[in-house]
Amino acid sequence: MKPAVILVGADKGGVGKTTVSRALLDYLAANNILTRAFDTEFPRGTLKRFHGPIAEVVDITQTSDQMRILDTLNSAQIKVSVIDTRAGALSATLRALRDVGFLEAVKSNDFTFTLLHVLGPSIASLDEIAETAPFIEGANYFLVKNHINATTFFEWDPVTNRRYFERVNPAGEIVIPKLDEMAYEQVEIAGVPFSTFVANKTAEGDPANSSFVLRGYVRTWQNKIAEELRRVRLLDILAQRT
């Protein structure tokens, strides 16, 4: 398979992009896709807290860290890289990928590039779509509606909705359902991947004592996300060959 990069991002904060990245990493692992992850929330690294063994914290604005990601795409044994952008850094990351020639290499079919653009319910997220449009030629561009809260996404104004969405031609939309608040909170406290929580394990692999009910909520939530990712044929996208 070609080296593949999945960029998960948003310029607006509070839309739950790291939750999307965590769910994505669990889905890929469940399908035996070896993945490495880059957490650009430097220096704290929320993604690394949950996926420490495969995640590396980087400063995407620094040339040396850009080299750590991109210069190793062809040489790394693991061919799928997930980049979780920090809040507000999507546009800056896309500009960096353009300036170093990565986006041109994508158009030349050297790499597979998938962008999961996590939207919030406000008009600010619609503005992001227009700003992202110049960078997505050759990419698999998905709009992700993450229902971290009980919100709706622009259906209240179809004219505005259409005016923005006609500027891009996304490969599709992915809907992340809402997860029960108590279940989400307990996974946060445990500090483990969602799949580890469902398996009733600790980060060290020892038996945990997590609630059967809360594990059930997380399992159902994961299954719904898996259905969405199967629907958009994400694994087929990653399996592309040169």
Overall mean pLDDT score? Answer: 89
Query: Quick one: CATH class?
Result: Alpha Beta
Tell me, what's the shape?
A: globular
Instruction: Give the CATH architecture.
Output: 3-Layer(aba) Sandwich
Decide which structural class fits the backbone.
alpha/beta
Using the coordinates shown, work out and report the CATH topology. Answer: Rossmann fold
Major sheet strand order? 3-2-4-1-5-6-7
What's the total helix number? 11
CA-based gyration radius: 17 Å
State the distance separating the first and last CA atoms: 7 Å
Largest sheet: 7 strands, parallel
**The named CATH superfamily:** P-loop containing nucleotide triphosphate hydrolases
> How many distinct folded domains?
1
The percentage of residues in β strands lies in: 15-25%
Give the fraction of residues assigned to helices: 40-55%
**Order of helical and strand elements:** EHEHEHEHHEHEHEHHHH
Given as residue ranges, the uncertain stretches (5+ residues, pLDDT < 50) are none
Number of distinct beta strands: 7
